[in-house]
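User: Hey, my collaborator sent me this sequence without any context and asked if I could get a structure. I don't really work with proteins. Can you help?
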Amino acid sequence: MMTIRMFLKTMAVFCFAAILAGCVGTVDGGKKMGNPMVNDKIVSTYEAPVTTAIAFQSAKKVLAAMGNLYGENTITLTLQGKVDTNTVYVKVEDAEGNVKVTTQVRSKRGGTNIPLASEIDKRIALQMTIDINEVVE
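Assistant: No problem. I've predicted the 3D structure and written it out in structure-token form, which is a compact way to encode the shape of the chain:
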């Protein structure tokens, strides 16, 4: 009787650990180790005159300036880079006439870094303003 109870407790611990140490989908369609129960994305929507091309170029400039840009997919408009020890994913997409920019940050051990995602998101917005003003002039 005691061995069955001990077995059930052990199985419960393993199941709980498996739930906590899951995989998280990234905005570029990949998977990364991490806790799927926490928010790791900042989503911003922009209206005209912002286009997906302007948003994508601005995101590239920001990631290159803040860290290391090492992945770029011009078909799905996704970027991947490193800022400090964090992996950063940025996706630009058309959302019913508006432009949606999703910034996702995952740490080395699978955690999140929402303050860094917010900072990157703000810098992308500022860079878009600069890029739009350069096009107008």
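In plain terms: Helices lie at 2-20, 52-66, 114-136. You can pass these tokens on to your collaborator as they are.
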